[in-house]
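Quick start: what a row looks like.
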Amino acid sequence: MSLERGPRLSGGAGRPALQALQRFLEPRPAAAPGERCEMCTEPIDAGHSHVVDLASRNLMCTCRGCYLLFTSEGAAGGKYRAIPDRYRYLPGLAISDGQWDELQIPVGMAFFFHNSDLGRFVAFYPSPGGATESLLPLDTWREVLEANPAVADLAPDVEALLLRRLGGRQVQQAGEAGGEDVTECYLVPIDACYDLVGRVRTGWRGFQGGQEVWREIDDFFAGLRERSEVVGDG
């Protein structure tokens, strides 16, 4: 994918700027995903950054230099946005069993982010078919937002509220006190949510998923907890 050509530059003063943009305007050789930057084709490692194409909602693997181009709001006319690298755990999430049921999420995991094109939050959940959208009841969601002001700090399009509902038996197995249902809550980069989606999609077997995929899911959330900053009181 190449950027659209802007106004033609002329004169000596414009020549350096034109040369700087030349690598974006010239055709680029195809590169294997995850091995080269999808903007400039520079080699990248496994810990590379991501940029969101807001028009297509696709994640683009990028080198550090290209990533930094889109960290400023409004860069490239707002077409691309860099995904921040902050992970936060919200142990004091206020959401009732009734509110969770009203959110109509058919599985025990879901992520929510503000879609700037639509001007509202949207909800998705991991499934064997990929990320599946769920209709979000606005009244219930408004109550959740009002009870959890930390969620308002999420950057639109690039950060998400990730929830996992744990049953009483799961809570006890995890070594937590009590045996009642609880909801784990994380404020994460949007690419972390799609990492979870990919694990579910590729690992799911049969109707229940299989033990292997649930171990993978447990490992994923354990990793989130380990790297996340705690926000608020538990």
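That is the whole record. Residues 131 and 142 are 23 Å apart (CA to CA). Residues 88-230 form one domain.
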